[in-house]
Structures are given as C-alpha cells and as structure tokens.
C-alpha cells in the first residue's frame, strides 16, 4: 500500500496538506482523531506524521528518512512511541493504565512522546474514562493519535478534546491504478472499484471465482432483457436463482445489475464516460441509443424496489419474475 510521500499525497491530499501545515506552523495539538474508512491510509499517514514530528532534520515538511529517529520509527524501535491495539474485543483499562504509566516515566529519550490508539472506538467505558483524564491533563510534550473507522462510537467528551482529521475515500482512479498494478484487468478492476473502496477487498473480489460468475450472470441477464422477457425469465430460473441462494449474494447481484443501468445512463449522457463494465461498451451504447432517460430511470427504480423487497424477505422467485416484467415493460426494440 502507499508508503512514500508522493503516494500519500495522491491518496489523501487534503489530510497531508493539513498535517504538513500544522507541523510547519508549529501548531501541534496534544491529541488527534484520524477518522476514515478502512483502506483510506490512516495507518500509513499516522506513520508519516509520527516520523515528521520526531525527525531530526525535516525538509519541506517531509521527514529526512536518514536520521537516527526516522530509522527507529521505521523499525518500530523508537522508545517514545507507544501503540495500543484492542485486546480481544476492547481496549481495556489495564492497557490504559500501563500506557499512562509509561508516558509519565522519565525516559532515557528526550523530546516528544507519542501514543497511538488503533481502533479507538473499542475503548470500553473504564478505559475511555481513564484516557479522558490523561487527555485533559497531558504532561510535557505528548501527542495522542486515535485511529478509528467509527467516529460516532467514541465518547463525545473524548472527541471534543481531539483535533478531528477526516480521511476521504480512496479516489477511484488511485484504486484502479493499484488494482492494475496487481495484474487485474481493466474491466474487472472497473467493476470491483464500484463495489468497495478498500484495496485488499477489491483484490479479493477480483480474484474470486464466485464474484466473476456473478458478474457474468448479471451481464448475461442485461443482454437477455433487451431481447425478450421469456429469455430473461429463463436466465433467472436456470442461472440467477441457482447461483444466488443467499440473501447477501442476491443483494450483491442486484447491486451489479443496478450498476449496469447506471452505466447505460452515463453513456447516454457522455459516450466517453467511465463505466463499471467497460467491456460491455458496444452493447450499452446501443441500449442507450434506443432508451429514454425516463425509461432508464424507471428501470433503476425497479431494481432498487426489488432490493428493498428482498430486505422484507419477499419470495425471491416472485421478486425476480416481477423485476423482469418491470424491466421489460415499454422496451423499444431495434
């Protein structure tokens, strides 16, 4: 994943500029919350920021990478850095007690002390109250960095004492680049990048045979809907229903179906639009040519209604038969 400064700037340009400005103007706060979804680079940028704060000779708000402190941060052996991970389900009070004890000790190293709480939303009540007291009365040069994917689960009293650093989702073009660097085809990368923003999950989906089969079945159905309702119903009964037996599988398949119609709308508006299914461009251009925006909007609404009915445990066979009729209704043939 992203390691060097250029990659981090591409991944999170706003966050990087924010942290570099804080450092440049010597406005370091005593506590930060790094808030963002999995895959947004929180750990990598935390590593960069910690290294920048401890670097002996930073240049241009970038750590030098060669001084003793930079090398110790990279190796995980800097005595002034303490990282806490959940012990099981929670970060427990004994972990906080030990951390605070270490932070208050007069260490062999001068300079700033830094502690990092990974999954800070998993502080239990006792440990959260203990860290709250330490946040209110930090001793000396101390910086806390709390990493979380669930900002709302952190106590408001803790949130109010930390500077909030909001991480945005990975830009789709960056995710596509990483996927293609992992030898994933442009077509598959375009599809999985619509399903998830997290690189590891995207790579898993791209290499998963079940997902590849789902993608193929959905696109086959889109083509059949264009032909006639009988062909579409045949695919539903012979392929769709046997393949998508679990509710989660059906949800994913309906999402993939919705993305197909979104592609057609995008292509109708702009033939050069980026698509979820670039390998289907010739067919989608033809469908777009003979469809109206109103018709396409109704088709997407039908898919969304089917997804909602699935949540209400509607019979899946009836659900899909009704969806095929709704998608077929009013279709203009060529």
From TrEMBL:
Ranges for domain DNA polymerase III delta subunit C-terminal: 242-328
SUPFAM superfamilies according to UniProt: P-loop containing nucleoside triphosphate hydrolases
GO molecular function: DNA-directed DNA polymerase activity
Domain of life of the source: Bacteria
InterPro entries in the cross-refs: DNA_pol_HolB, DNA_pol_III_delta_C, DNA_Rep/Repair_Clamp_Loader, P-loop_NTPase
Presence of the UniProt keyword rRNA-binding in the record: no
Any Pfam family matching the protein: DNA_pol3_delta2
Enzyme Commission (EC) number: 2.7.7.7
Matches recorded under PANTHER family: DNA POLYMERASE III SUBUNIT DELTA (PTHR11669:SF8), REPLICATION FACTOR C / DNA POLYMERASE III GAMMA-TAU SUBUNIT (PTHR11669)
NCBIfam families (alphabetical): holB, PRK08058.1
Designated name of the protein: DNA polymerase III subunit delta'
UniProt organism field: Lysinibacillus capsici
């Amino acid at each position: 994943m992203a390691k060097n400064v250029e990659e981090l700037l591409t991944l999170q340009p706003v966050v990087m500029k924010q942290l570099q400005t804080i450092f440049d103007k010597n406005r370091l706060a005593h506590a930060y919350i790094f808030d963002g979804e999995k895959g947004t680079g929180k750990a990598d940028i935390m590593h960069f920021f910690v290294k920048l704060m401890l670097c002996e000779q930073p240049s241009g708000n970038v750590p030098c990478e060669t001084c003793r402190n930079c090398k110790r941060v990279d190796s995980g052996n800097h005595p002034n850095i303490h990282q806490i991970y959940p012990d099981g389900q929670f970060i427990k009070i004994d972990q906080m007690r030990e951390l605070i004890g270490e932070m208050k000790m007069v260490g062999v190293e001068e300079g700033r002390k830094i502690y990092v709480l990974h999954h800070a939303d998993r502080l239990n009540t006792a440990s959260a109250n203990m860290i709250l007291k330490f946040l209110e009365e930090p001793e000396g040069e101390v910086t806390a960095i709390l990493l979380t994917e669930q900002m709302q689960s952190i106590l408001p009293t803790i949130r109010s004492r930390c500077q909030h650093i909001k991480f945005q989702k990975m830009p789709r073009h960056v995710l596509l680049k990483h996927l293609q660097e992992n030898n994933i085809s442009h077509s598959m990368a375009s599809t999985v990048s619509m399903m998830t923003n997290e690189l590891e999950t995207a790579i898993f989906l791209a290499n998963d045979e079940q997902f590849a089969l789902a993608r193929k079945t959905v696109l086959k159905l889109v083509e059949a809907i264009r032909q006639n309702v009988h062909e579409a119903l045949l695919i539903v009964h012979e392929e769709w229903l046997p393949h998508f037996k679990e509710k989660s599988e059906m949800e994913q398949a309906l999402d993939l179906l919705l993305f197909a119609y979104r592609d057609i709308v995008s292509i109708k508006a702009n033939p050069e639009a980026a698509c979820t299914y670039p390998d289907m461009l010739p067919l989608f251009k033809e469908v777009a040519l003979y469809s109206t925006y109103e018709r396409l909007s109704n088709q997407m609404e039908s898919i969304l209604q089917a997804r909602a009915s699935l949540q209400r445990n509607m019979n899946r066979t009836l659900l899909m038969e009704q969806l095929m009729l709704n998608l077929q209704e009013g279709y203009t043939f060529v």
